[in-house]
Amino acid sequence: MSSSALIGPEQEARWRQRIREALFVPDPLPPLERQFHGQFAPEPGVVVERVSYATQFGMRIPAILYRPDPLPAPRLPALIVVNGHGGDKFSWYPHYSGILYARAGGAVLTYDPTGEGERNAERQSGTREHDRIEPPDELAQRLAGLMLTDLMQAVSYLRQRPDVDPWRIAAAGYSMGSLVLAFGGAVELRLRACALVGGGNLDGPGEYWDRAKPMCTGIPYRALSFLGDRAAALYVLQASRGPTLLYNGMEDEVVNIPATGEPFLRDMRQRAAALRGGEDGLFEYGFCPGASHRPHFVSKPVALWLHRQLAFPRWSEGAIAAMPETHVSEWAAKTGAATDPFYATEHREGGTMALDTGIPGLTREQLCVYGADEWERLKPRLVHETWRVEARRRIAEKG
Q: Per-residue pLDDT averaged across 93-115, rounded?
């Protein structure tokens, strides 16, 4: 780091600690208590495992792990898919990503965010249950901290697997998941690389990210005001952790990209460089012309970037460049893959050109971690309502 840097390792460590404290991330993290719930093969050469592990307050995270079979190497690179607003492990893009990168020779882990899928009291998806606005602001800060804890527990789970290389774990976050990963990539030093898509364009006081969904976005982002220039500070922390990519549709009005495009990101990078004392390690960025809000980590440019960071054993750069693509809206209509009608338009997710072809559709039943009776028995340790009650109790105890 250059002598002109405004911050150094000690300041970075203090910032990381303050971020965790502001969002009430437990230190140490909870014991993992991982469990295996069965597996199936959606196609030859790919296995899907149903797993779970612990998060805050003794609650559990139902998750799906995709992996190649047989293993192409003793230790696999791994990717965590952090779902967007209303998304969960049943959505089309985590299961497309899972099979895509398992074919490449990697392990892929995705999970239900709090209030969605098997963490929803009705086992429903797209509910946005965690959006319900409730005072005080600390509840929203704790909610973001839960999402951050969930991500960090995913890293812990992968590092405990004997078939995963603990030094080649990356995460890809879409939309709301991009904000979770903006925080997570700043504090979770065990991540090798982070790809933020449909977001990452962090702005200033009173602007888009401060005014976005209050519970999971606006209030938590405002809680990090102690960082000063929050975007620059977070990306300095990311740079000290490892490579980061921001990739967006040029016409992504959902996260304000038309107003925060290339000049905005270039300026954000320059501000981070001024804090860091140079551009070494700072985030890269790119755009998909003519596109709006999409999970771009299923597409060729982001897959190529991830391969350069993780070295998927069954891929090469030449193979990726030559690989055919799939038009997602046509694929979803053919396979019955779960899409959100609001985002399934051609301009948004439906128009995605996803890498590779022949990805099978998976049913909700296949991707359920728990059978109906087991889920009913474990419901108090899964659903968002239980977490909310315990979070409120802890807030009240503080007086």
A: 98
